[in-house]
Design a protein that fits this description.
The protein is mainly alpha-helical. The chain contains 11 helices and 2 strands, in the order αααββαααααααα.
Length: 211
């Protein structure tokens, strides 16, 4: 294991670059001391490495995969190396901006949409955002734009000056039908039952006797 001390990552936080360096350098030292394609004890080493850094074993394997790069030597022969920077840059692009940070960065755009919606009460958020994108791209080109779905989420969370009651389409409900009646389906007509007395008369008609 790498002799350099490393602090565990904070809970619910991403690994920083020093963690990536520690992981890759530790793996390089392990591979150097265990030559060969089948490194004995590598699984246990990965588990200890994950525990030291404060992450999962699967995350360590993902970092190793992203850190593997192909390079060519002077003879144009391809071989593979491990790069902490390559893994860090690749995985950092996949990290989404937290909602709080995104909200702060898009405040200018949100204020513009609020003004447009309030100036025309019949206009919805969808129509306003689409109108700005199509007809006023120069005004919003330097702004951080949020999607319609995200904007509606901010409205429901009470983070904008627009309230659900200000948007007709958000408070529109289906009205109940007045004077509606439910009609039951006609039951299947049952066959008429013959009077048993008539049946007796028919059976004895040949004898002329009525029972």
């Amino acid at each position: 294991m790498n002799t350099v001390n490393i602090s565990q990552k904070a809970k619910n936080k991403h690994l920083n670059f020093s963690h990536y360096e520690f992981i890759i350098n530790s793996l390089i030292q392990f591979n150097a001391s265990h030559p060969g394609k089948r490194n004995i004890g590598k699984t246990q080493f990965i588990k200890e490495l994950a525990s030291t850094v404060g992450t999962t074993v699967s995350n360590i394997y993902s970092i190793i995969k992203d850190a593997t790069i192909s390079v060519r030597d002077y003879n144009l022969k391809v071989h593979y190396e491990l790069s902490a920077m390559a893994a860090f840059e690749k995985r950092s692009k996949n990290h989404k901006i937290p909602n709080n940070s995104k909200f702060e960065k898009s405040k200018e755009f949100i204020s513009l949409v609020e003004q447009e919606v309030k100036s025309n009460r019949l206009s919805s958020i969808d129509e306003t955002i689409n109108y700005l994108k199509l007809h006023q791209p120069d005004i919003i080109k330097n702004m951080v734009i949020v999607s319609t779905k995200t904007f509606y989420s901010y409205v429901h969370q009470g983070r904008t000056s627009i309230k659900p009651i200000d948007l007709p389409r958000m408070v529109r409900r289906k009205t109940k039908r007045t004077g509606s009646h439910t009609f039951q389906k006609d039951k299947k007509a049952l066959p008429l039952q013959k009077d048993p007395n008539i049946s007796r008369i028919e059976k004895n008609s040949d004898t002329g006797k009525v029972i």
